[in-house]
């Protein structure tokens, strides 16, 4: 063994390789070069286990890299990075995404480790934490029945807090540092929950109710986060369609899978998460494209770090990283832990929105996505943005700004509302640092206050640009600072170009082929029924609304305009009373070739529709009863005549009287 170490040392010296000196050494400091490391200098780092209990039956593995260059604002903050899954190792990102190493497969099938320039450790102290127990090198020994895998985000968060407390004890400099908690994918659950508990446990420490080190949490960052299970799974249907992954028939099939997903969740089906997982498995199977990176074949995204599991399970690597333990059966390192995944499977379709609602008024929260991520990208993010409590649900409508890098090239979009930051990164998939590492570095610099947006907006005024496309509000409104038109009273739509026509009783209207019409009608405080009689089969109702005005909203298409039973060429729509002074309709003629001509009949619940329908019923019933009476009288006259109760003259007279009654 001594001879081997001597040979290794001589080879290292011959290659001119060395370890970077650590400013705050301790027992977890890495003192050897990683196997097959090709770089000149291996950055200072620390690794080991953070015990979660006094018996060391459970522990989270960490790998910590102090920043390698001076931070422009003084002491660099600590940025924690958590992987997703649930059950995925975090430290794999060190070799593929935001860390300082890249694993390369050699011609002989082995692996080498190259140094990656411009990683997150360039300006930040970065702590990768394999989480939850079971993932990566982390472990739990449940032989005593007390150290099971976590089953919800609160249990995960408390384990992370415990690991942080231990980390601060052996890294003194961390006690006074500023902290940011970050993560990707399923860490959209871990990160908000951890931040929530950090703030709450800090309060307990301040009040003397809890012993420990408070953590100066400055903000959170979540990349392509899985925040709200059901809404994001359903959003994947339309996200895939934007990339032409579905044919029209396959799109309908995907919609069917979406209904099954919703129903399984609503009925508490224990397999609901598996049923909903079909919404990203199905498109990959029929297209060969993984929704996580719709610009890459699925075979490429399946393994972004080939050979990494073998490398990290190599006994020499395990020893250098201080990852030896007798508490974990099987391989020391698991890139994905099935046990950890299964333990959290009941939580997969739930939500961390309650934590985010709590955090947004208190600390800055950044959510970023790659624009080619169809799984948990921006399409998916907007689905859960609208579920936040007011006022942060407004983020769905906050204007996006083009984001330019220091060279003036567009790299994505950004938008900010109070503590809520949203970034979309161009040409990136589910793991943005893998695709655009330098852009995520710039994002970190901006979010932590080292840089700001202004020098990189290239002079582009998005508000003016948007309003120019909206015809400068058609001279019937003004453009606000978000680039949205604020319309003058009585004008509507995004460009203020529509002043709805009053829909009047017994009027005839004509719509050009594929034409639109926007109508307003007094609400009168009653439910109303509007019947379109004529070429109604070609009509489609695109919107039904209150005094907010008309719109073109395809969610309502064909759902409300129904055949009228009183006429084959009539279709009706119901407008419920809203307490608003006006109701609005947007109607389209779906025929490409012919105009649609129709009459309008308006009934109200109080004095129209129901009265008219009941009058028809009453008239028919009365005629039936009258006819029955006439038949009975005629029968009685005939019977009396046959029995000789009156003569032919009387019979003729009575028959004539009954006929007059019938007339």
Give descriptors for this structure.
alpha/beta, 5 domains, eleven-stranded mixed β-sheet, five-stranded antiparallel β-sheet, 17 helices, 21% strand, disordered N terminus
What is the 3D form? Answer: elongated
Number of strands: 26
Q: Report the structural category.
A: alpha/beta
* Proportion of residues in β-strands: 15-25%
Main pleated sheet: 11 strands, mixed
Summarize the structure.
By secondary structure, the protein is of the alpha/beta class.
Can you give a write-up of this model?
Helix 3 crosses helix 11, helix 4 (about 230-240) runs antiparallel to helix 5 and helix 4 packs parallel to helix 6. It is elongated, with a radius of gyration of 35 Å. The chain contains 17 helices and 26 strands. Helix content is about 30%, strand content about 20%. With about 675 residues, it is an alpha/beta fold. The protein has five domains: about 20-225 and about 305-455, Alpha/Beta hydrolase fold, catalytic domain (Rossmann fold), CATH 3.40.50; about 230-290; about 460-490, no CATH class; about 500-605, Sandwich (Jelly Rolls); about 610-660. Strands 3, 4, 5, 8, 9, 10, 11, 12, 13, 14 and 15 form an eleven-stranded mixed sheet that branches.
Any chance you could write out the topology, listing elements then pairs?
Elements: H1 2-15, E1 18-19, E2 41-42, E3 46-51, E4 58-65, E5 78-82, E6 101-105, E7 111-115, E8 125-129, E9 139-140, H2 153-170, E10 178-184, H3 187-206, E11 216-223, H4 229-242, H5 248-266, H6 272-287, H7 298-301, H8 308-313, H9 315-320, H10 338-344, H11 353-359, E12 365-370, H12 378-385, E13 401-404, E14 410-417, E15 420-425, H13 432-435, H14 437-447, H15 462-469, E16 477-479, E17 485-487, E18 501-502, E19 508-511, E20 516-522, E21 528-534, E22 539-545, E23 562-563, E24 570-575, E25 582-589, E26 596-604, H16 609-642, H17 648-662
Parallel strand pairs: 1-2, 5-8, 5-10, 10-11, 11-12, 12-15, 18-20
Antiparallel strand pairs: 3-4, 4-8, 4-9, 6-7, 13-14, 14-15, 16-17, 19-26, 20-25, 21-24, 21-26, 22-25, 23-24
Helix pairs in contact: 2-3, 3-11, 4-5, 4-6, 4-12, 5-6, 16-17
């Amino acid at each position: 063994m001594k001879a081997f170490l001597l040979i290794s040392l001589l080879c290292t010296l011959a290659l001119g390789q060395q370890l970077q000196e650590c400013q705050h050494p301790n027992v977890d400091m890495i003192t050897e070069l990683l196997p097959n490391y090709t770089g000149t200098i291996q950055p200072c780092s620390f690794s080991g286990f953070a015990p979660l209990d006094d018996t060391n039956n459970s522990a989270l593995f960490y790998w910590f890299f102090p920043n390698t260059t001076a931070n422009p604002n003084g002491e660099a903050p600590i940025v924690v990075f958590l992987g997703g899954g649930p059950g995925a190792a975090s430290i794999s990102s060190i070799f593929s995404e935001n860390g300082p190493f890249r694993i390369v497969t050699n011609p002989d099938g082995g692996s080498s480790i190259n140094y990656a320039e411009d990683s997150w450790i360039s300006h930040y102290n970065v702590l990768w934490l394999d989480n939850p127990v079971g993932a990566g090198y982390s472990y739990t020994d449940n032989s005593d029945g007390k150290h099971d895998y976590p089953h919800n985000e609160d249990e995960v968060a408390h384990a992370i807090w415990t690991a942080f407390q231990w980390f601060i004890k052996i890294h003194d400099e961390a006690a006074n540092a500023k902290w940011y908690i970050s993560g990707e994918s399923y860490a959209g659950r871990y990160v908000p929950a951890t931040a929530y508990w950090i703030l709450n446990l800090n309060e307990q420490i301040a009040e003397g109710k809890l012993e420990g080190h408070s953590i100066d949490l400055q903000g959170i960052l979540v990349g392509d986060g899985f925040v709200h299970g059901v809404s994001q799974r359903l959003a994947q249907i339309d996200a895939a369609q934007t990339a032409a992954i579905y044919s029209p028939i396959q799109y309908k099939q995907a919609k069917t899978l979406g209904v099954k997903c919703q129903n399984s969740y609503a009925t508490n089906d224990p397999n609901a998460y598996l049923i909903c997982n079909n919404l990203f498995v199905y498109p990959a199977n029929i297209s060969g494209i993984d929704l996580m990176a719709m610009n890459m074949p699925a075979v490429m995204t399946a393994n972004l770090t080939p050979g990494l599991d073998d490398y990290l399970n190599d006994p020499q690597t395990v020893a250098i990283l201080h990852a030896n333990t007798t508490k974990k059966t099987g391989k020391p390192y698991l890139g994905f832990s099935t046990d950890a995944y299964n333990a959290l499977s009941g939580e997969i379709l739930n939500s961390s929105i309650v934590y985010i609602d709590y955090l947004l008024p208190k600390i800055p929260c950044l959510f970023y996505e790659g624009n080619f991520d169809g799984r948990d990208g921006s399409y998916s993010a907007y689905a859960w943005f609208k579920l936040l409590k007011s006022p942060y649900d407004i983020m769905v409508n906050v204007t996006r700004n083009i984001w330019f890098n220091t060279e003036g090239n567009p790299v994505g979009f950004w938008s900010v509302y109070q503590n809520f930051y949203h970034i979309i990164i161009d040409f990136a998939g589910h793991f943005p640092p893998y695709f655009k590492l330098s852009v995520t570095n710039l994002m970190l610099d901006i979010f932590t206050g080292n840089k700001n947006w202004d020098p990189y907006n290239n002079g582009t005024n998005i508000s003016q640009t948007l309003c120019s496309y909206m015809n400068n509000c058609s001279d019937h409104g003004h453009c606000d600072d978000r680039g949205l038109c604020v319309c003058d009273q009585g004008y509507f739509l995004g460009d203020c170009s529509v002043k709805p026509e009053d829909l009047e009783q017994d009027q005839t209207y004509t719509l050009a082929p594929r034409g639109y019409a926007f109508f307003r009608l007094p609400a009168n405080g009653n439910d109303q029924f509007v019947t379109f009689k004529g070429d109604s089969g070609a009509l489609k109702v695109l919107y039904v609304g209150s005094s907010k005005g008309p719109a073109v909203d395809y969610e309502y298409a064909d759902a409300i305009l129904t055949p009228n039973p009183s006429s084959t060429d009539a279709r009706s729509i119901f407008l419920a009373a809203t307490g608003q002074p006006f109701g609005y309709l947007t109607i389209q003629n779906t025929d490409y070739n012919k105009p649609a001509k129709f009459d309008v009949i308006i009934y109200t619940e109080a004095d129209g529709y129901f009265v008219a329908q009941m009058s028809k019923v009453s008239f028919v019933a009365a005629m039936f009863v009258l006819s029955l009476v006439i038949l009975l009288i005629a029968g009685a006259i005939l019977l009396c005549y046959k029995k000789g109760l009156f003569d032919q003259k009387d019979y003729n007279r009575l028959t004539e009287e009954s006929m007059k009654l019938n007339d």
